[in-house]
Amino acid sequence: MVECDDGNLASGDGCSRYCEIENGFVCSGGSTTSADVCTDKRQPLPSLELVSSKNTLYITFDEEVSLQLPLKENIEIIVDGPS
After folding, report:
1. Helix, strand or coil for residue 53?
2. How far from 28 is each of 14, 16, 36, 57, CA to CA, in Å?
């Protein structure tokens, strides 16, 4: 059964190469003439490390993340995770 079609044969983008919706994704908008759009609904898991001697909090995520809002004040954010 075809659950989705995003127009490619790549798995890991929400719609598998077998046209099945992958765990943690929601796909919609497809038709016979346009591809489905899949959205990742999983939440990245943070790992926190406080280095009090440097007054620094390190936050590492288990997947790629991006900032949704601009930084304010004198805050420096360094995001690290798997490459």
Report:
1. helix
2. 11, 14, 5, 38
Distance CA(65)–CA(80), nearest Å, equals 9
**3-class secondary-structure state, position 47:** strand
Q: CA-to-CA distance for 8 and 38, rounded, in angstroms?
A: 12
Domain residue ranges of the chain, discontinuous segments joined by +: 1-41, 46-80
Residues 40-59, mean pLDDT to the nearest whole number: 85
Whether this prediction's pTM lies above 0.70 is answered by: no
Distance CA 9, CA 11 (A): 7
How far the first Cα of the chain sits from its last, in Å, is 34
Residue type, 76: E
Which value, to the nearest 10 degrees, does the dihedral of the CA atoms of residues 67, 70, 71, 73 take? Answer: -160
